[in-house]
């Protein structure tokens, strides 16, 4: 996406206030490892290492809106229980917890995921067993009416937990239309007619299939599916389907429009729909046309799937990707990368770090990085800055600047993230990232590496691995041949 347009949208986001109505869920992640089978039943036993709690459902929409710079308020329902109090406190920390209704007769929805060695074993949902009472419905609608005037746009985030009843949905549409506010809906379940009156409805491909009966496997079937569902709706301006790696498709009075996504290495699709509806709504509220808003949403949701867990994206994430062209090419600051590494490690992934100049990438580099990646689940490349290369290699180096070197490295499947550093040694990177394994070429010895940061690795119990090099392959050799073709 054009970085100037994106910059304008995100700059205006700081002045926007967005009202979100929907089901808030407390997401609970239990991380551990499995090494044995239970004696009581033929099931694996998870040895718990860590538990992480975060806002889910419409709460994750709030997290995304706030991460992108907008002010946001959530109208939702929680139970009078520990989980509900946790949710309210987390929303208050996001500046969005003052419009939550507490219903003592309903438990707070909780989703618990059990994750072993980076793979989800089991997901357990705790949901309310009944709909909203008349009193709770009135309280929710009163909150909506109170918050609506200050909102620049409204998001209805229906997660099917009973917090978005037809009575609430219908009255929200009426109030919003009367106030001249657009409502963007992230739907759940069948019968989209309960969202009649919305500005747009944004199902994913599975939800569109369940609603219309046509599997959107390509552009033609997607267009037919959109048309079939759209014709059943009343007073809905637009229908948009998110199609994962294929981008988004829009159906409206002017027909079908497709917005393509760039290929990315996908780590986790959790919450991508929340990111999409958040960015889409922000862009529309900032004055973007619908196609531009879709491009921004595809851009943002494409970035969030490169992260592990229910993540969000920041303006810095999106600017760096728009500028560099790929998320790995220097796309994260060291502080952001520390957070990414923490998420990887929480999911049981082994993190590796190597470093170098990687000037004039050649077959020896490719072989080295592939062998290094075989020793870890995620490989980070610390890339010497231009000044650092010059200090190490002398004047005239690097031949390629750090942007060019990072861009080429980012095309390699073996490389998961790249971070540029200025120092002569990677010691500061190692201290910040604390990789499980530090990898260097076998032209070094372990003793050689200790003063360069290897002692830090040993201090916390990390590994040092020496990777065999391809004989006769080096940047220096290539440059010598170029300077003296006769050789």
Describe the main β-sheet briefly.
9 strands, mixed
Q: Tell me the Rg in angstroms.
A: 25 Å
Which blocks of ≥5 consecutive residues have pLDDT under 50?
A: 323-330
Structural class: alpha/beta
Shape: globular
Strand ordering within the main sheet:
5-4-1-8-9-10-11-12-13
Give an account of the 3D structure:
The chain is α/β, with parallel strands linked by helices and 487 residues long. The protein contains 18 helices and 18 strands. It has helices at residues 3-13, 58-67, 82-93, 134-148, 166-179, 205-212, 219-232, 272-285, 290-304, 315-324, 334-346, 363-373, 386-393, 402-410, 427-433, 446-449, 454-459, 475-483; strands at 17-22, 24-37, 44-57, 71-79, 100-103, 110-116, 119-126, 153-157, 183-186, 200-201, 238-242, 248-252, 255-259, 351-356, 378-384, 417-421, 437-441, 463-467. Strands 5-4-1-8-9-10-11-12-13 form a nine-stranded mixed beta sheet, with helices on both faces. It has a five-stranded parallel beta sheet with strand order 16-15-14-17-18.
């Amino acid at each position: 996406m054009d970085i100037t347009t994106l910059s304008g949208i995100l700059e205006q986001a700081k002045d926007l206030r967005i009202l979100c109505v929907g089901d808030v869920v407390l997401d609970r992640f239990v991380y551990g490892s499995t090494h044995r089978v239970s004696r009581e039943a033929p099931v694996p036993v998870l040895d718990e290492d860590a538990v992480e709690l975060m806002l889910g459902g419409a709460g994750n929409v709030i997290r995304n809106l706030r991460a992108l710079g907008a002010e946001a308020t959530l109208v939702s329902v929680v139970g009078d229980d520990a989980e509900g109090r946790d949710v309210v406190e987390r929303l208050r920390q996001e500046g969005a917890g003052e419009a939550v209704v507490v219903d003592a007769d309903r438990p707070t929805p909780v989703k618990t995921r059990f994750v072993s060695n980076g793979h989800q074993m089991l997901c357990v949902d705790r949901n309310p067993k009944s709909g909203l009472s008349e009193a709770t419905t009135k309280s929710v609608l009163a909150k909506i009416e109170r918050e609506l005037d200050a909102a620049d746009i409204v998001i209805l985030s229906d997660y099917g937990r009973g917090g978005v009843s037809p009575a609430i949905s219908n009255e929200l549409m009426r109030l919003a239309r009367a106030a001249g506010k657009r409502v963007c809906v992230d739907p759940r379940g069948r019968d989209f007619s309960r969202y009649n009156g919305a500005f747009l409805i944004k199902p994913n491909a599975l939800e569109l299939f369940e609603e219309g009966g046509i599997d959107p496997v390509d552009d033609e079937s997607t267009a037919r599916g959109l048309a079939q569902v759209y014709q059943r709706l009343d007073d809905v301006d637009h229908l948009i389907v998110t199609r994962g790696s294929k981008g988004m498709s829009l159906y409206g009075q002017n027909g079908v429009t497709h917005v393509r996504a760039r290929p990315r290495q996908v780590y986790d699709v959790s919450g991508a729909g929340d990111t999409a509806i958040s960015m889409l709504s922000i862009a529309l509220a900032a004055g973007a046309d619908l196609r531009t808003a879709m491009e921004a949403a595809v851009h943002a949701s494409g970035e969030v799937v490169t992260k592990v867990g229910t993540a969000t994206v920041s303006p810095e994430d999106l600017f760096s990707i728009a500028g560099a062209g790929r998320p790995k090419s220097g796309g994260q600051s060291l502080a952001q990368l520390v957070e990414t590494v923490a998420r990887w490690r929480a999911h049981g992934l082994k993190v590796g770090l190597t470093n170098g100049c990687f000037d004039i990438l050649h077959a020896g580099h490719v072989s080295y990085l592939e062998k290094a990646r075989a020793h870890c689940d995620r490989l980070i490349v610390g890339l010497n800055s231009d000044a650092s290369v010059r200090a190490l290699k002398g004047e005239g180096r690097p031949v390629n600047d750090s942007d060019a070197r990072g861009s080429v490295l980012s095309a390699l499947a073996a490389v998961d993230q790249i971070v540029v550093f200025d120092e002569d040694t990677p010691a500061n990177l190692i201290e910040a990232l604390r990789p499980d394994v530090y990898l260097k070429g076998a032209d070094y010895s372990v003793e050689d590496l200790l003063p360069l940061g290897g002692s830090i690795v040993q201090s916390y119990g990390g590994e040092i691995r020496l990777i065999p090099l391809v004989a006769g392959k080096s940047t220096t050799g290539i440059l010598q041949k170029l300077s003296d073709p006769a050789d």
